[in-house]
Design a protein that fits this description.
Helices cover 0% and strands 62% of the residues. By secondary structure, it is mainly beta.
């Protein structure tokens, strides 16, 4: 589900208090600023992760658009942002099952320059997984790094770090082994 937020970048939405955490900034070639964050619902002294958040501001600081990515089944906790030369933004993080909070998988979300979701990739093991960072090369290939407590690609260990390269082929991400 993708919707617009209140233009104050956090603030109050539908009489509920929200806050943005895990904030990361990126600037594209035109000087536009992107703010990636996790949208968190504030309930008194408690906070609950709700959605991955992305906003684009022009060179003057004017809000061009803002988006959040959420679903009824998962809480989306965003950690990093990467930009490609075409103005696409990619977010990484973890999604937490609402039905089974111990089910935590990694994700990559891709947004085009207008803020439309163009890629939603989730992956993981039955254990904890999360995608912590992303880098994009000049050909539009992206590289994701994170951590797992499970066995990605059959490699069983305790908590370990991983990195996965994806090549852009006709607009589709393909894992390279």
């Amino acid at each position: 589900e993708h919707s617009s937020l209140h233009p104050t970048l956090g603030g109050s939405l539908a009489s509920r208090e929200f806050d943005l955490r895990n904030r990361v900034l990126a600037v594209d070639r035109q000087g536009n600023l992107y703010l990636q964050a996790t949208l968190t619902l504030v309930m008194g002294s408690k906070r609950q992760t709700v959605a991955a958040y992305l906003a684009k501001l022009d060179v003057t600081g004017k809000l061009m658009w803002e988006r959040y990515h959420t679903s009824d089944e998962f809480r989306w906790d965003s950690f990093d942002i990467g930009l490609d030369g075409a103005g696409n933004a990619f977010l990484t993080g973890r999604l937490i099952s609402m039905k089974n909070p111990s089910q935590i998988d990694a994700f990559v979300l891709g947004f085009d320059a207008a803020g439309r979701v163009r890629l939603e990739k989730t992956f993981g093991t039955p254990e904890f997984d999360g995608a912590g960072s992303i880098a994009i090369d000049s050909q539009g290939n992206y590289y994701v790094a994170g951590g797992t407590e499970g066995a990605l690609d059959g490699q069983a260990n305790n908590v370990k770090q991983w990195a996965v390269p994806y090549l852009k082929q006709g607009g589709t991400a393909v894992q390279v082994k």
